[in-house]
Amino acid sequence: MKESPKFWTPTEYDCIRIDFDGLNGCILFGKDSEEHARLIAAAPELLAACKAIIENEPKGITPYFDEAIELAEQAIDKATQ
Fold this sequence. Notes:
By secondary structure, the protein is α+β, with helices and mostly antiparallel strands. It has one domain (8-80). 52% of the residues lie in helices and 16% in strands. It contains 2 helices and 3 strands; from the N terminus they run βββαα. It has helices at 33-56, 63-80; strands at residues 8-10, 15-19, 25-29.
């Protein structure tokens, strides 16, 4: 799977600038801004992982798998609405 590019940079003002395409972007402020930027960078891979769980794991094997599938479905719904 292709790795997300590092498209965020720290600034001198305790914030992270995220550059989407060279023209559009956003700024995250606060002590957790670097962690949030890393999560945004990983979002495409996380979405693909959730889809793979749903496609490859049948329901009804164990309650643990059913819960994982349900959480993956909820994450996909949240990400794609």
